[in-house]
Amino acid sequence: MPDQATSHTTVSLPLTVADAGRPLGAIVAERLGEVGRQAAARGGLWLRRRRVSPDTPAMAGETLLVRLPPAGGYCDAPLTLDHIVYEDDDLLVINKPPACYVGDTPWDTQGSVLAVMTRLLAARDSQPPMLHLAHQLDFGTSGVLVFSKHPRANAPLQAAFNDGRVHKRYEAVCTGYMPSEVELVTGHGRAAGGRWRLYDRAEVGRALPNGQRVKLAHTRFILRRQYKQAALVSAIPLTGRTHQIRLHLAALGCPILGDTRYGGPVSIGELALAHPLLHAAELALPHPRDGRWLYVFCPPPPVFVTAICRLRAE
Q1: Start-end of CATH 3.30.2350.10 domains in the chain
Q2: What phi, psi does 141 have (nearest 5°)?
């Protein structure tokens, strides 16, 4: 998720005796107006740390949490069927646009890539699909995203990802000067404040205060093109940790352009960057049904191409 994902608003509504038995959605709409009605419809109602439906009857004495979206409001992933790059009875692969969430957020179950693609396929096929995310991409990351379309594919897919049999290549535009090729092997885990961070490789396996352990993070970087104080690099993650490529490039002193969380600049000249310039370009995996290798390539989004053109012109 992007940095702004943590800036959503949570409104606490104590439920009174007069509210008892009434639908939560009606209470929220009454107290918060249109924004409350939208929050209820989009899945933003929570009780006892669990998402609840708008027709759930209220119980006096409880506190309902209404999770509202960031300042930009509700936004559906900008998908069409043209984003599909491969499909069969078991798999669906799309070219994910940047700046959209892959799955549900605390404030929205309707606008994610998964939700929108489910609606698109249901309209196309006249029946709802059984889509399941095989892996994740960050809010700002574009490119290859794999779904299973049948339950029989879920276990083989997860085994392939967990066992390192899925090969990925990302493209990133980072700041600074990169060597022609470099590998970074570190520890990876959460800091005391909850954010992801790197640890020394010697700390791999150490228990953290949150009950998790420091895990190994390994990325290979290959320089594609050096520009003036910026570079286009291929990133090959040999492990699959959250924000791994972003953290490793920042650790090399070359944060990704647009990656404000890890120190990347927010613009190239007059071109404003609303998300990291990170693109999942290629993926190869054994097909979950017969093990044959499937190779997928996705071209980068327009903002990525525009950024490269600006750098070339400098």
Answers
A1: 81-162, 167-313
A2: -80, 135
Domain with CATH 3.10.290.10 in the chain: 3-68
CB 75 within 8 A of CB 42: no
- Which H or E run includes 283? strand 278-286
3-class secondary structure, 186: strand
- Tell me if 239 sits within 8 A of 248, measured CB to CB: no
- Enter the tokens of residue 28: 């929220």
CATH 3.10.310.10 fits 81-162, yes or no: no
Q: Encoding tokens for residue 153? A: 């594919």
Q: Which two tokens stand for residue 173?
A: 């535009």
CATH node for 3-68: 3.10.290.10
pTM above 0.70, yes or no: yes
Q: What is the CATH number of domain 167-313?
A: 3.30.2350.10
Quick: pLDDT tens for 100-123. 999 999 999 999 999 999 999 999
Whole-angstrom Cα distance, residue 61 to residue 18?
11
CA atoms of 135 and 154, how far apart (whole Å): 11
As a whole number of angstroms, the distance between CA 116 and CA 68 comes to 19
Burial readout 204-222 (b: 16 or more C-beta within 10 A, e: otherwise):
beeeeeeeeebbebbbbbe
Encoded tokens for 112: 């994610």
